[in-house]
Design a protein that fits this description.
By secondary structure, the chain is α+β, with helices and mostly antiparallel strands. The chain is built from three helices and three strands; from the N terminus they run H-E-E-H-E-H. It has a single domain, classed as Factor Xa Inhibitor (Irregular), CATH 4.10.410.60.
Length: 66
């Protein structure tokens, strides 16, 4: 059986924590920041955690991370 390939685009966007949760960087903090409130920008700085229903999709893209 040949090795499975990791989807490199997904590998750059998602990281798996020690407990098996999937972290990602929130979108919307690259440009057009003047119209966004400070509270919104502050919340976008922190990484998000994927919902359990979406983790199954990421498992397919990152076969060796889990």
């Amino acid at each position: 059986m040949p090795k499975m390939k990791t989807r490199k685009s997904a590998a750059k966007r998602f990281k798996v924590t020690g407990s098996g949760k999937v972290r990602y960087k929130k979108m919307g903090l690259r440009h057009i920041l003047t119209k966004k409130s400070s509270k919104r920008k502050r919340d976008l700085r922190h990484s998000g955690v994927l919902d359990a229903s979406e983790v199954q999709t990421v498992k397919v893209l990152l076969p060796y991370e889990f």
